Amino acid sequence: MRWKTFFNLTVFLVPAAVMLAAAPSTDAQSAAANPQSEAGSLDIRGAWKPETYRLKSGPVHEVTGLISFTEKDWSVLFFIVTDEGPRRGSGEGGTYTLEGDKLTFRHLYNLSGGHAVDGFEASELSMRVRPPDAEDAPAEPCTITIEEDLLTIFFPSGNQMTFRRSSR
Q1: How many helices (H) and strands (E) does the chain have?
Q2: Spatial separation of the C-alpha atoms in residues 27 and 100, rounded to whole Å
């Protein structure tokens, strides 16, 4: 079941005007307060804890960390964890746009590396910083779903991550 915001609209015909009144709703108020939510976008602002990282090739990894969204900025720190402990991780951030269920990350910061795990070869520590106005900042168009407090991000690679809402 996808999370949907429902609006109850009542139309009153008044001489020379039409008034639309939305029924009071926490979801409606939240959407109105969030510029990202105009045109029916989902509200992702707040903090989310990662739960799983599912690779297109099949492996599913347990992950821990946090992804946070403000009105226009995002940052994530996550680790793939096995019985041996954290095996690889990534810290990333930048800006984003959200239109409907289309989330596009603009990558300004990246720190990643780690041991080999099922589906990933070992990788050396990598660091990258770009200025906010960088023209070469990669854009990563994704699709998202929110089911109650579970956010799933579908990456262009075919991989997907699930996150559980931690706070707004």
Answers
A1: 1, 11
A2: 15
6 occurs within a structural domain: no
Which residue bears the tokens 């706070």? 167
Output b/e per residue, 19-50; b: 16+ Cβ within 10 A.
eeeeeeeeebeebeebebbeeebbbbbeebbb
Domain count within the chain: 1
pLDDT in tens, 31-63: 333 334 344 568 999 999 999 999 999 999 999
Q: The domain containing residue 95 runs over which residues?
A: 46-167
Q: Any residues with CB less than 8 A from the CB of 61 and at least 6 apart, and which?
A: 52, 53, 54, 55, 80, 81, 82, 117, 118, 119
**Residue 57 placed within a domain:** yes
Q: Cα 2 vs. chain centroid, distance in angstroms?
A: 15
Give the largest CA-CA distance in the chain. Answer: 72
Query: For position 161, which CATH number holds?
Result: 2.40.128.280
Query: For residue 32, what are the contacts with CB-CB under 8 A and spacing of at least 6?
Result: none
Whether 139 is covered by a domain: the verdict is yes
**Cut 0.90: pTM above it:** no
CB count, 10 Å around CB of 4?
Answer: 9
